[in-house]
Amino acid sequence: MTEFLIKPSLNNKKVYKIKKSINENGKVENIPVIEEKPLTLYLNNQEIVTMMTIGDYPEYLALGYLYNQGMLHAYSEVTKIEYHNDLNVVVVRTKNKTNYEKKLKKKVNTSGCAQGTVFGDLYSEIEKIKLNKKISISHQQLISLSKKINMEPSLYLKVGAIHGCVLCEVDKPLYYFEDVGRHNAVDKIAGLILQKNINTDNLVFYTTGRLTSEMVIKCIKMQIPILLSRSGFTAWAIEIAKKKNLTMIGRMKGKRLNILSGEFRFTNE
Amino acid sequence: MTEFLIKPSLNNKKVYKIKKSINENGKVENIPVIEEKPLTLYLNNQEIVTMMTIGDYPEYLALGYLYNQGMLHAYSEVTKIEYHNDLNVVVVRTKNKTNYEKKLKKKVNTSGCAQGTVFGDLYSEIEKIKLNKKISISHQQLISLSKKINMEPSLYLKVGAIHGCVLCEVDKPLYYFEDVGRHNAVDKIAGLILQKNINTDNLVFYTTGRLTSEMVIKCIKMQIPILLSRSGFTAWAIEIAKKKNLTMIGRMKGKRLNILSGEFRFTNE
To answer: At A244, is the pLDDT very low, low, confident or very high (cuts 50, 70, 90)?
Structure first.
């Protein structure tokens, strides 16, 4: 089994419930079903959003959400994170007070799962980012990464109805988060990167979900040069990836894959 | 082939593009990739939301979105729908002016795909709804419905990275919509129901996507008593379905299925 630094929350009994199901033969079974609970995020005294989440890592989720929405730029701005389990509330406090009223009025609902909401000006935030061009990944490394991720015991394998996102080095997966929406999972990774100040120049981002424009934008915002998925992709996602020289690979299954952008980082070994 | 009244937009060349992809052997292929374009929705002079969509049936999408968000209650309130293809804008005009400023401030981002945003008070809107208890569906009908839907040529089969929603009678699928997010697809169906004033008491709703709380709430809001999916489900979705006596069946594949709620409408024939 792979040595993940953070593994799927499989042993967290709070993220799923046992529910009664009747199968096609009338047989009653007790099956594990994923939780989906509201978590309301405050930035100082400003209510930002209520997200539906499995409920693990609320602090990373909160930080990552604010970061990906452009409401927070560095962990040094944060003075405190308060998670109130009983209230389903997480509060992020910053040194300087903020006001996102205006931004909150103009939201873009994107095609992502959960939290599929970015502000209209998010794209402008990635315009200046230049991704590391010196990293490469081989076909064998991709096959091996996929295998390690897919073989890892996960909520997906146990409970289903969930997406996973994994932050990896080219030859090994490091942090594996899951959530009902793939955007919660990616925001947890963004929160981790922010809090631990992880240098992502040589890292790889793997998601079980589809590669839509928002997923590509978030990957670029986290300055990760390689984006992988076992699922499909949209035309706009490809266009943004090409513009920013992101290596974007979709439909990765076994040995098969589709390189949609940034093929210069891929080596056929 | 099934006689759908509305079929997937497979012959609409605007909903996908041909993109270059390189496979694992370095071979360049031209593959069809789904579009994902912004569509900004106005209710009278109020900007409501920008959605990412494949772009077909913008009028149904607009109507259904407003209906599912509780901003519109009957088609008779609507005086005009204007779709400006060049601007990616759709405007719904109503007899009486509306103001949703306050509601817009308090949004809940749910675990759905795309448009995964409901207002916090949405649940209260379904509290009084009573679903028709006199309809039933047999195991054979479910197998046959699934088969017809899965065999139908669709954007999913051709392009991938897309969800489908189908409004059916117990023994035949009627209207089949697809979109990048499953919530756009369900909103198109809601728009159709609203505009055509369809009585849904004896109808069935099939989705390729997961059964999350929001999907269940939308199904109940459309007063459809049976909800089917080939995918998984969340604990909260089951709880809401049980409370409202919705028949909810997940992981429908071939002969297999999981009945999570409302088993009284299922007959094992």
So the answer is: very high
- Residue A264 CA to residue B176 CA, distance in Å, equals 40
- The whole-angstrom distance between A101's CA and the closest CA on chain B is 8
Containing structural domain, residue B115:
37-121
- Residue B114: which of A26, A116, A160 has the nearest Cβ? A116
Query: How far is it, in rounded angstroms, from Cα B208 to Cα B185?
Result: 10
Question: Nearest CB to B232: which of A115, A160, A233?
Answer: A160
Mean of the per-residue pLDDT values for chain A?
Answer: 90
Contact A198, A74 (CB under 8 A): no
pLDDT at A82 (0 to 100): 97
Order of strands, edge to edge, in the sheet holding B78-84? A117-119, A107-109, B46-53, B37-43, B89-94, B78-84
- Residue A31 covered by a domain: no
pLDDT score recorded for residue A100: 64
Are A116 and A154 members of one domain? no
- What's the CA gap between A139 and A137, in Å, rounded? 7
Any B CB within 8 A of A77 CB: no
Residue A119 is predicted with a pLDDT of 41
Mean pLDDT computed over every residue of chain B: 90
Q: Who among B37, B51, B259 is closest to A21 (CB)?
A: B259
Which pLDDT tens digit goes with each residue over B111-164? 333 333 444 456 777 989 999 999 999 999 999 999 999 999 999 999 999 999
Q: How many domains does chain A have?
A: 2
CATH number of domain containing A88: 3.10.20.10
Residue ending a domain, among B69, B95, B121, is: B121
User: Which residue of A13, A16, A20, A24 is the best one to mutate when testing the B interface, meaning the one whose CB has the most B CBs within 10 A?
Assistant: A24
Q: Which residue has the higher pLDDT, B68 or B186?
A: B186
Domain match, B263 and B239 both = yes
Residues B154 and B111 occupy one common structural domain: no
User: Does a structural domain hold residue A25?
Assistant: no
Q: How far apart are CA B14 and CA B187, in angstroms?
A: 20
Asked if B260 and A37 come within 8 Å (Cβ–Cβ), the reply is no
**Is the pLDDT score of B36 beyond 60?**
yes
Residue for token pair 């009585």: B199
Mutate to test the interface with B, among A51, A52, A100 (most CBs of B within 10 A): A52
Whether B215 maps to a domain, the answer reads: yes
Q: Suggest the residue from B17, B24, B28 to mutate for an interface test with chain A (most A CBs closer than 10 A).
A: B24
Q: Do A114 and B114 touch (CB under 8 A)?
A: no
Please state whether beta strands B204-207 and B226-229 pair in parallel, antiparallel, or not at all (unpaired): parallel
Structural contact between residues A189 and A167, judged by C-beta atoms closer than 8 angstroms:
yes
Q: How confident is the model at residue B49 (pLDDT cuts 50, 70, 90)?
A: confident
Lowest pLDDT segment from A176-185, B103-112, B162-171, B233-242: B103-112
Q: Is residue A227 part of a domain?
A: yes
